Automatic annotation (TrEMBL):
GO molecular function terms noted in the UniProt entry: protein-cysteine S-palmitoyltransferase activity
Membrane topology reported for the UniProt record: Multi-pass membrane protein
Family of this protein: Belongs to the DHHC palmitoyltransferase family. PFA4 subfamily.
Enzyme class: transferase
A GO CC term attached to the entry: endoplasmic reticulum membrane
Active site residues according to the UniProt entry: 121
Stated name of the protein: Palmitoyltransferase PFA4
Comment on protein domains: The DHHC domain is required for palmitoyltransferase activity.
Organism: Penicillium canariense
Length: 431
């Protein structure tokens, strides 16, 4: 698996570069030798200017650092943990062993928490983040405009070929030229269509200040609200707790103009939004974000999710009293034995990093099948890591959290509390 990923990520940038070269430069070769309508000077300029903008934006989207939590900020957060509580609870990343700022996610490929992570893009082999989003969206913009322009030029030549189809063949283009034109036309049309959809999606993200991951979180929240409505406003959480699920507004949508300004790096200069050499957002930014006032100050994002909050610590068995219990039937005794065995197995695991929850629907089906007098264990834990649990929940487009490139193990089951050691340190510092 690892070597597969390695090969794909190694090939992505050369493959995209080859595609850009084929469309931008082989098309010029074709136009120059297409006698019926050779390339005009202004067309030549336009193609090359678009190509240059595409190259600059693409390479910046690939190679600009998507951001990392500086050690300095880490220390600052440790000294002033209240900084991070502006939007509610503090989040902790198990992999980085550091505070996870609001809107940051742990990328599986970059192997660290990325500020305002949108998704890890396989075509740029880089994260689309607070720092790379402006470059990424400019790349999409110039690619769509440039390839749209190329499409009009190709269309013009194709219609000339079509209208002269009854002329003797020695007057028209050669077979090689016809194949070249067809290839350019098909590849350009398909690519511009796919990138147009991606551009619209990214523009939507920009206008509403909602990353792709956050759109997923919004859908997940809506699903939880629907589930809780059926179950009386509450959902079961581990340890027999019940969590009240209430519709929450997305906090980072702060108005169209501010959303665009913040998304494009904080500048109010509209020209800089389009300028391929515009500065990457300041590295001091990206750790705290302005929020709207739709919700009470104490409410946090993402909203509470009973399937993502940590399991309570398991109490150790007391003096083996369970072993002395008497059972009414042999079957019951065997089941009790199996349960103890499974619990021992859970406890004995070297680092019970993630404890997956069963899928919501399976869990409820299971509860319905039980007899009434039996104890219902809310949010049962999985013993078998090979099975898929609630982390495989998908949004309307069929995407689960890992499809955005995040480390799903620490992201889905990420509602970690701050480790005890850090809390003690904070308390000591506060004295
Ligand atoms: Zn992390
Ligand atoms: Zn990444």
């Amino acid at each position: 698996m690892l070597s597969d990923d390695f090969t794909i990520s190694q090939l992505a940038i050369p493959a995209v570069s080859l595609l850009i070269s084929f469309l931008a430069y082989s098309s010029q070769y074709f136009f120059l030798h297409f006698e019926a309508a050779p390339l005009r000077k202004d067309e030549l300029w336009k193609i090359n200017i678009f190509a240059l903008c595409i190259w600059i934006c693409y390479f910046r989207a690939c190679f600009v650092d998507p951001g990392r939590l500086p050690t300095k900020a880490n220390v600052a957060l440790l000294d002033h943990p209240e900084k991070d509580t502006a939007t509610g609870r503090q989040r902790w990343c198990r992999r980085c062993e550091a505070y996870k700022p609001p809107r940051a996610h742990h990328c599986k490929t970059c192997k660290r928490c990325i500020p305002k992570m949108d998704h890890h893009c396989p075509w740029t082999s880089n994260c689309v983040s607070h720092f790379t989003f402006p470059h990424f969206i400019r790349f999409l913009f110039y690619a769509v405009v440039g390839m749209g322009y190329l499409e009009t030029l190709l269309w013009e030549r194709a219609s000339i070929v079509w209208s002269s189809r009854y002329l003797p063949s020695y007057l028209g283009p050669s077979v090689g030229q016809l194949i070249h034109l067809l290839l350019l036309f098909v590849i350009n049309s398909m690519t511009v269509f796919a990138l147009f959809i991606l551009l619209v999606r990214s523009l939507w993200s920009l206008l509403f200040n909602t990353t792709t991951i956050e759109s997923w979180e919004i859908e997940r929240h809506e699903t939880l609200v629907r589930r809780s409505r059926v179950l009386g406003g509450y959902l079961d959480a581990p340890g027999g707790k019940k969590i009240r699920i209430k519709k929450q507004e997305f906090p980072y949508d702060i108005g169209l103009w501010s959303n665009i300004k913040d998304g494009m790096g904080g500048s109010i200069n509209i020209i800089s939004w389009f300028w391929p050499l515009a500065a990457t957002p300041d590295h001091e930014t990206g750790w705290a974000f302005e929020i709207n006032d739709f919700e009470d100050p104490g409410v946090s994002w993402p909203p509470p999710d009973p399937d993502r909050i940590p399991l309570p610590a398991r109490p150790l068995p007391e003096d083996g009293s369970e072993l002395l219990k008497s059972y009414s039937s042999a079957r019951e005794e065997i089941e009790a034995f199996k349960r103890r065995q499974a619990e021992d197995f859970e406890r004995a695991r070297p680092s019970p990093e993630i404890q997956k929850r069963k899928r919501f629907h399976e869990r409820h089906k299971q509860n319905d099948d039980r007899e009434d007098d039996e104890q219902i264990l809310p949010g049962p834990v999985y013993g078998d890591d090979s099975d898929e649990g609630e982390e495989s929940w998908r949004n309307a487009e069929g995407e689960r959290l890992r499809d955005f490139g995040v480390d799903e193990d620490v992201e889905f089951y990420d509602e970690d509390e701050i480790p005890l050691g850090i809390l003690m340190k904070q308390r000591n510092q506060g004295r």
